[in-house]
Amino acid sequence: MVFTAIGALALTGCGDDGGSKDKPGDGAATGGSSKPSVTLPKLNGEKISVAAVWTGPEQANFTKVLDEFEARTGATVTFVPAQDPIVNFLGTKIAGGQPPDVAMIPQVGAIQQAVAKKWAKPVGAEAKAQLSKNYAKVWQDLGAVDGTQYGVYFKAANKSLVWYNAKAFENAGASEPKTWKDFIATAETVSASGVTPVSVGGADGWTLTDWFENIYLSQAGPEKYDQLAAHEIKWTDPSVKDALTTLAELFGKPALISGGADGALQTEFPVSVTQTFTGGDQPKGAMVFEGDFVSVNIAQTEAKIGTDAKVFPFPAVGADSPVVTGGDAAVALKDGKGAQALLTWLASTDAAKIWAEAGGFISPNKALDAAAYPNDVQRKIAEALIAAGDDVRFDMSDQAPQSFGGTPGKGEWKTLQDFLKNPKDIAGTQAKLESDAAKAWTS
């Protein structure tokens, strides 16, 4: 099955330094002196705005991609910092008569909402040609609504990885677990060595949805996963009870979580990573679960990926390790040559290459040469994502209406934060999830 294959392939070869390497686009295409892979119009004097929730290194690396677009077209591009939930942010901008030309939307459900509100503009012929040439059908379908293409997926993620402090593992005599049972046993071994085993960024509810989704996909299987993602089965289904029961094997043992439940709920995602790779052989946590983008935060510490910071696939709960993916899609909110040209650029191999070289990025573009990635870890994770083709499973909460799956303090994010605090209340958690989901899918 593809899930096991990806897990095994993603992590072979962890030799290179994972720090971001700045290699901005040189105006040429993949391979340096070869011709550009995409033709763009001249847009001298045109002003284009792009909204995204990215900050810090992600914003800086995306800006390099926009800079190259400016150099090739003559346009001026402005980055507009957005906030989650992005649909609310965009609604405010649109109500004020100042929508950005393009928005980078991180949820499938949010793209569907933007289409339903008649904000989104269909993708033009040039961008569609790049998508057809460079993307597997699954990535095209994820950006389409009722058969019309609206989104261009530019940034993807493998969200089924556990990163660990190699020194803490070595001192504890721990090894990489392959199953969930082994994962809990490894956590107990690390705990016995005097280091808290698991760092959880519970202040950001999306991290908790990722914990649930990986367990659910592995335990219940892809067919059930698709049904729950579409709310074709209820959150009161026994399969959800099974997954929450499994998750409670970790959440129900506060000693295994850095700061316990209360500490985790006050820990934001970036800190959950950096505290795992600082403090020498006495970090605040020995392991942190999240996607390939963790490498961006590790790069802000002195730890080197492949030596100090290592990674293994999310442990198998059922027969296979899960592979959950996520992504950010560019959606045009204004008619015009500039917005469409930017979508065409973001669908190109040249644009993907710029951020791939900078690090902390995985592209769904199958035409991108994997040599563009700065280290073996990212290279293999990217190759695995491409090799999965149409069999990848997209982040479940990102497929939901944003009020349920993508809003801080509401819906799935809030209910799973409450579950982290009280993991014994499985039936109550299911009932609340179903109540919120039913409202979201009918509103």
**CA gyration radius, whole angstroms:** 21 Å
- Report the span from N to C terminus: 37 Å
Shape: globular
The main sheet comes to: 6 strands, mixed
Helix content range of the residues, please?
A: 40-55%
- Poorly predicted sequence stretches spanning 5 or more consecutive residues: 1-33
Mean pLDDT: 90
| Total helical elements | 21
Roughly what fraction of the amino acids lie in strands? 5-15%
SS-derived structural category: alpha/beta
Total number of beta strands:
12
Fold blueprint:
Elements: H1 2-9, E1 47-52, H2 56-73, E2 76-81, H3 86-95, E3 102-105, H4 108-116, H5 125-134, H6 137-142, E4 144-145, E5 148-149, E6 151-158, E7 161-165, H7 166-172, H8 180-192, E8 198-199, H9 205-220, H10 222-229, H11 238-251, H12 260-265, H13 269-274, E9 287-289, H14 294-298, E10 309-313, E11 324-332, H15 337-346, H16 349-358, H17 376-388, E12 393-394, H18 396-399, H19 402-405, H20 411-421, H21 426-442
Parallel strand pairs: 1-2, 1-3, 8-9, 11-12
Antiparallel strand pairs: 3-11, 4-5, 6-11, 7-9, 7-10
Helix pairs in contact: 1-17, 2-16, 5-15, 7-8, 9-10, 9-11, 9-20, 20-21
Description:
- Helix content is 46%, strand content 12%.
- It has 443 residues and is an alpha/beta fold.
- Helix 5 packs parallel to helix 15, helix 7 crosses helix 8 and helix 9 crosses helix 11.
- It is globular and about 65 Å long.
Could you list some keywords that capture this structure?
46% helix, 21 helices, disordered N terminus, alpha/beta, 6-stranded mixed β-sheet, 443 residues
